[in-house]
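Chapter summary example.
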Amino acid sequence: MTAGRCAGLVILGTVLAAFAAGAAEIGGAFTVGAGYLDNPLGIAGESSAAYASQRLRLNTIGHHGRDDFRLGYELEASQFGNDTELGSLRHALGWEWWRRDDDSPGSFGLGIQGAVRRYREAYSYYDYGEGNFYTVWRTFPASSLLLKAVGTFRLRSYDDLPEESYLEPRLDVQLKRFFASRTTVGLETSLGLKHFYDSAASRVWETPHLPSTSQLAARLNLSQGVSDRVGMRAWVEQRFSLEGFPHYVGEDVYDSPLLDFYAHEGTDALAAVKWLSPLLFWVEGGFAWGDHDYGDMLFADDGAGALRQDMVRDWFVSCERSLKIGAKPAKFRVQAGWRNQDSTLGAYNLDGGWFNTSLTCSF
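The structure predicted for these 363 residues follows.
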C-alpha cells in the first residue's frame, strides 16, 4: 500500500467518525515562528540556516454524556534559508474519543490520525504517509498518585524508499507522585519496536529476515517548587537496545535506515530552574547532557568503517509569557541554546547554537 493510499484511508475513516460523533464546538490555534540553526542536519561543516515555521490546528468537539469526541486537523510548514532546501509541509487529520470517570478524575481515550509529509525537491524522496493509532488510560489510585499508560501503533510508508517503511508498536507507562511539599516524583518506562516490513529492507541491508530494532527506556523525573515564583526540575534517562539497529557493511559502503533514537543507547540527563519574573515572563535556564553509544553500527570515516559514540552537552534558556489578543489567549516564547558534541568521529563533532521564537494565538 502506498503512502498516499494509507494516509487517505485513515483520513476517510476519521471523517466518517466525525459525522457519527456530531461534533459542535469549533476552536484551534495558529502559531508563527522563526529561528536559526548552526547545524540543521547534525553534521560538522554544514551550512547554518535561518528558518520560518507555521502551524495551524483546527478542531471540533462534541459532548455526549461522559463521552467527548474531537475531530482535528493540523497543517505544519517550514521554510529554510541558505539554499539548504530543508523545508517541508505536513497535513494531518485525526479523531479522538474520550470517556471520563464520574467517580474520579481518571479517563480513557483512543484516537486515530492520518498524515502526509512532503519535502522540498532535494529531499522529496523522503516523502511519506503514515497512520497513527493510540489509546490512553489515566487513573488516580490515590489522591496524590497518577498512573498513565499510552499505547501507540504507527504505520509509515515511503513511496520512493520502501526499505525505510516500518511498523512501530510502543507502550509508555508513567507513575507520578505528588507531595504536599511541592515535590513531584515520577517514573516513566517505555518499550518500543520498529519493524521494517517491506521486502526491500532485507534486500538492501542483506538480512535473512525482515529487519527490526527495539528498545527499552526508563526515566526518573523530579520537580520541586521552591516558591510561587521559582521551581526546579530534573530528570535522568537510561536507554537499552534490545535489538541492534539494522545496517549494511560492504566495500566502502556503510548504510543504515534513517537514524533516530532507536539507533543509540546510553544515558541522558537534564536540570533546569524556572522563575516567574516581575513582568510575568516565565524564564527557564538549564543544562542537558547525554552519552550516546551507537553499538556495532559502522560509519564511514576516512575511507573505512568506524564505531561511533557521542558526548552531548546542551545549554539552554527560554522565556515565555501568556498574553491576550483581543479576548483570546495567546502565548509568546523565545528559546536559545548552545550544543557541544564530542564524537569519536570527526564528522559529528559539533559546536554551535540555535534560536527560535514563536507566537501562538488561540481562537
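To summarize the output: The first strand starts at residue 25 and ends at 37.
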